[in-house]
Amino acid sequence: MTNLSILKTSIRSLDGLYSLTDLHKASGGDEKHKPVLFLRLDQTKDLISEIENDKVQICTLPVKTVRGGKNPSTYACEELVLAYATWISPKFHLVVLRAFLAMHRNEPKQLALPEPTVDREFQQTMIKILNYARQYEQFQRAICTKRGEEQRRQIEFFFSDIVGDDGYLFIFRNNITQDIQKATDMLYSQITR
């Protein structure tokens, strides 16, 4: 049994083959990426034939399906695992390839592609911009009420001279609250990674 992990999912092995079912889970479990669909492809069938006919056979059986029991799964040789990962996406292929290379070199496995880092200056700047947006939202609410009708007309007059109507770009936008919430959520997800 090998000790292979892809994106925090342990990949079972059986007789030198690796579980495509576990890889499917690691990739996100999308229905369109089920192992059975991959194995039905003509290109996959051709690859299996090439592996079976190869004079320098590394594995005796390229694919093995275990039905029933507690852990049914489809197992495949390393070449098919890499082809399966390629079929799913280039990003997933890179993760699987690096995990196999690390396993063969007895190095620690990379569980995922490195996440981009957000430096402190960027965070501080984004927080300031969000604060400005919230202040603007309050300003917008104040002048868009019945009481502020005269103020709204004056502001429209002052901004009407800006070329290309850029003066109206953010004034009186109905969905500023949703935009601010979306920006807040995005910033929070970057900070808490």
From TrEMBL:
Record keyword DNA-binding present: yes
Molecular-function GO terms, alphabetical: DNA binding
Record carries keyword Lipoprotein: no
Positions of the KilA-N domain: 1-103
Keyword terms: DNA-binding
Short name of any one Pfam family annotated for the protein: KilA-N
InterPro entries reported for this sequence: KilA/APSES_HTH, KilA_N
Superkingdom as given in the UniProt entry: Bacteria
PROSITE patterns, alphabetized: KILA_N
Descriptive protein name: DNA-binding protein
